[in-house]
């Protein structure tokens, strides 16, 4: 089965919270490689004085880097738990349980492309254990030892409202 390179076709995240740009590779049940190019136009850089600061002060926020990694994980999780005949409502909503051994490398700056490499270490019916790294070129900028993802039916999590095209 082939999948779109557009993450918005695979996960429910949308602007302004979509923090991955392109799916480079996905093998459901095994691995995914997902890219994100950091832009000075992102909201993190819109605070007064930030754009005028020296470039070394433009480091991508760790929380945003980790969320981008989370969304790369969601690409792998959703392509594993669903096919194009099912959507988020049928497949269940993936929720991050916990991470361990998270390490950040050098800062990521606007104009650089992060490439997230995600692997499934264990898969169970309603949960997965994921691991991975993120790189800018040869530089490792993030390492995640293990992450636990569980899924729950969308109907028990709230309104059940899903963006157009996802149900």
Automatic annotation (TrEMBL):
Q: What PANTHER family does the entry give?
A: 3-HYDROXYACYL-[ACYL-CARRIER-PROTEIN] DEHYDRATASE
Give the Pfam families listed for this entry.
FabA
Which terms in the Gene Ontology molecular function aspect does this entry carry?
Answer: lyase activity
The protein's name is Beta-hydroxyacyl-ACP dehydratase
- Key words of the record: Lyase
Protein family: Belongs to the thioester dehydratase family. FabZ subfamily.
Gene3D superfamilies to which the protein is assigned, alphabetical: Hotdog Thioesterase
**SUPFAM superfamilies the record matches:** Thioesterase/thiol ester dehydrase-isomerase (SSF54637)
Q: Which organism is it from?
A: Streptomyces palmae
């Amino acid at each position: 089965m082939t999948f779109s390179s557009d993450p918005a076709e695979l996960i429910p995240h949308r602007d302004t919270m979509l923090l991955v740009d392109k799916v480079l590779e996905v093998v459901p049940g095994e691995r995914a490689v997902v890219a994100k190019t950091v832009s000075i136009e992102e909201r993190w850089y819109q605070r007064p004085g930030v754009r005028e600061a020296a470039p070394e002060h433009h480091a991508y926020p760790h929380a945003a880097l980790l969320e981008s990694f989370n969304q790369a994980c969601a690409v792998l999780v959703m392509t594993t738990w669903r096919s194009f005949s099912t959507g988020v409502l049928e497949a269940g909503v993936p929720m991050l349980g916990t991470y361990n051994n998270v390490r950040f490398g050098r800062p990521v700056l606007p104009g650089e492309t992060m490439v997230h490499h995600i692997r499934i270490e264990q898969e169970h019916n309603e949960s997965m254990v994921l691991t991975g790294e993120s790189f800018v070129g040869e530089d490792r900028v993030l390492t995640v030892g293990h992450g636990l993802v569980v899924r729950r039916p969308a109907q028990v999590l709230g309104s059940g409202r899903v963006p157009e095209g996802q149900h």
